[in-house]
Specification:
globular; 318 residues; alpha/beta; Arginase, Chain A; 8-stranded parallel sheet
């Protein structure tokens, strides 16, 4: 094992409830310099339109990520041995100024990217993904793999507000951060505001895989389509925790029944092994609405699943 790689605290040596809370019990570092993957919190929910609370997600996901061990059960990958990973803390946020909050998040992620590290963040509401994309797509548009109950391609809320957790991917397409022909949204479901709510996204070329299609086709068939659409060019992975059924992840601001099981979500992420990721996030974990930390452990586990496919990607490139 390369001694320069950070290692998590061993739960067999130090109890999981002891010590400082960091993502997966890794060292807390001040900079992404020398890292392959930077785990980072975005404690901000300034784009929430109804039930706020996702600003508390990073702290609780850190707490529950102490349950994560060092080896993937299926791939047998040991991400902390093949890549250098650490917790770089939280980006600076502004809870009372939305536009300044977006600017601070972009600056924080840009700092990570400048060191050549891949950002793997925990939010925060889904608007946090917009400034992250501004940081990772500075040289050109990227593809998007998007797990969610909602398309998040609305235009405005309350008549004038273009920046909410229901609008990030419309803004990202308009800003040239995303190639709409390389966007796939998986698990979309639930009631909508009007019949044509998704028409704009579809007209841009976005592929929407509704939950009904997923149920009919299954994970392997769906992810084959995802990989065909995304190809080998760079892509970003965003995982909204409300893609999972609220019976298994109740701690979120906009729950929708009929979602993925946690097992299905794990399978979906594992099948993405081989895609070319420039970053990823887990968003909308809202601890104030959680029950016995169920959603936070789901968020931490999805984060680990994503980390492992990122680590395998980096290992293959070496």
């Amino acid at each position: 094992m390369d001694s320069k790689f950070h290692q998590p605290v061993d739960g067999a040596q130090v109890p999981r409830f002891a010590g400082h809370a960091t993502f997966m019990r890794l060292p807390a570092v001040a900079s992404a310099a020398g890292l392959d993957i930077a785990l980072v919190g975005i404690p901000w929910d300034g784009g929430t339109t109804n039930r706020a609370g996702a600003r508390h997600g990073p702290r609780e996901v850190r707490n529950l990520s102490s349950l994560i061990r060092s080896t993937h059960p299926v791939f047998k990958t040991e991400p902390f041995k093949v890549t250098n990973v650490a917790d770089v803390g939280d980006v600076s946020v502004n809870p009372i100024d939305l536009l300044d909050g977006l600017k601070r998040i972009e600056e924080g992620i840009s700092e990570i990217v400048s060191h050549g590290a891949l950002p793997l963040s925990v939010g925060g509401d889904h608007l946090t993904t917009l400034p992250v994309l501004r940081a990772v797509a500075k040289t050109g548009p990227v593809g998007l793999i998007h797990f969610d109950a909602h398309s998040d391609t609305n235009d405005t809320y309350f008549g004038t507000n273009p920046y909410t957790h229901g609008t990030p991917f419309r803004r990202a397409i308009e800003e040239g951060l995303l190639d709409p022909h390389r966007i796939v949204q998986i698990g979309i479901r639930g009631s909508i505001y009007e019949p044509g709510e998704h028409d704009w996204a579809k007209a841009q070329g976005v592929r929407i895989i509704y939950m009904e299609e997923f149920i009919e086709r299954g994970a392997q068939s769906v992810i084959k389509d995802v990989k065909d659409i995304i190809g080998t060019s760079p892509a970003y992975l965003t995982f909204d925790i409300d893609s999972i059924d609220p019976s298994m992840a109740p701690g979120t601001g906009t729950p929708e029944i009929g979602g993925f099981t946690t097992r299905e979500a794990q399978q979906l992420i594992r099948l993405l092994d081989g895609v070319n990721l420039v970053g990823a996030d887990v968003v909308e974990v809202a601890p104030p609405f959680d029950l016995v930390n169920m959603t936070s452990i789901v968020g931490a586990t999805m984060m680990f699943e994503i980390l492992c496919i990122m680590a395998r990607q980096i290992e293959r490139g070496r």
